[in-house]
Design a protein that fits this description.
The chain is of the alpha+beta class. It folds into 2 domains: about 120 residues, lpxc deacetylase, domain 1 (Ribosomal Protein S5, domain 2); about 160 residues, lpxc deacetylase, domain 2 (lpxc deacetylase, domain 1, 2-Layer Sandwich). It binds zinc ion. Zinc ion binds next to helix 1 and helix 5.
């Protein structure tokens, strides 16, 4: 399997979920073994930052890249999932503001835009991260994420439990391929409780949040007029997030991830632990 990059193209402006900023994206091809690199074209010298777990500086509510104590690109996870599933190994993503557009709260737009005529095959073979030894991270509340060897691509097991009677206890378990991605994961939106939105907005976050870009739950009601897109849309979205977050490894992954009630923080800790011991993995 060869590495792939993208043709140059731009997409329409979109609003950032947390900042409320409007940002425009332009995609540019990149050389083999470049990885995914964000470029802030609105800043002096157009600083670049690679989408790597070691460049993640904040994981509160979203996955955010930065360096030197500054945050440069926020909320990258849905695009990263779209890039992973489209098989884009190398690309420059130009952005003219701090936060990625949220669009409809899923990865649909990102996945639609990488339709085949946007993808260019390169000569070098794709590199995979193959898990050789199990690694895991558990927080103080017992929420846990781990990864272990699995020979058949990427498998994800995810469990969530929320007090909301609409979410409750949900589980997902499957090998991730394009079929299940397109049917169940790609269009699954981010979700929250109305009281959380009220709180986040009171502290200056979720400024761009609306029923157009998130499923909002209020007790036993879904406030979005169209309801849910899938019966298990909430856990499906968590799978979308973890695929995107795990792509900050810099590789397509051969392994099985099992997560219980975790988020961006846990995924980032898992990657740090995985990479802390070269016995845990090999690059093939
Ligand atoms: Zn998300």
């Amino acid at each position: 399997m060869q590495q792939q990059t993208v043709k140059e193209f731009s997409i329409d402006d979109g609003i950032g979920l947390h900042s409320g900023n409007i940002a425009k994206l332009r995609f540019l091809p990149a050389k083999e073994n470049t990885g995914i690199v964000f470029r802030r074209v609105d800043l002096e010298n157009k600083p670049e930052i690679k989408a790597l777990y070691s460049n993640v500086v904040d994981t509160k509510n979203s996955t955010n890249l930065g360096f030197d104590g500054k945050m440069y690109v926020r909320t990258i996870e849905h695009l990263m999932c779209g890039l992973y599933m489209a098989g884009v190994d190398n690309a420059i993503v130009e952005i003219d503001n701090e936060e990625m557009p949220i669009f409809d709260g899923s990865a649909s737009i990102f996945s639609e835009m990488f339709k085949k005529d946007k993808i260019i095959a390169q000569n070098a073979p794709r590199k995979f991260l193959k898990v050789k030894k199990a690694a895991g991270f558990t927080d103080n509340n017992g929420n846990t994420v781990s990864i272990k060897p699995y020979n058949n691509g990427l498998k994800v097991n995810f469990e969530i439990e929320f007090p909301s009677p609409i979410v409750g206890h949900q589980m997902f378990s499957a090998k991730i391929d394009n079929d299940i991605y397109q049917k169940e994961i790609m269009d699954s939106r981010t979700f929250c409780e109305k009281y959380q939105v009220d709180y986040l907005q009171s502290i200056g976050l979720a400024k761009g949040g609306s029923l157009d870009n998130a499923v909002v739950l209020d007790g036993d009601k879904i406030l979005n007029p169209g309801g849910l897109r899938h019966e298990k849309e909430c856990v499906n979205h968590k799978v979308l997030d973890i695929i995107g977050d795990m792509y900050t490894s810099g590789y397509h992954i051969i392994g099985e991830i099992t997560a219980s009630k975790t988020g961006h923080f846990h995924s980032n800790e898992l990657l740090k632990i995985l990479f802390s011991d070269t016995e845990n993995y090999e690059i093939i």
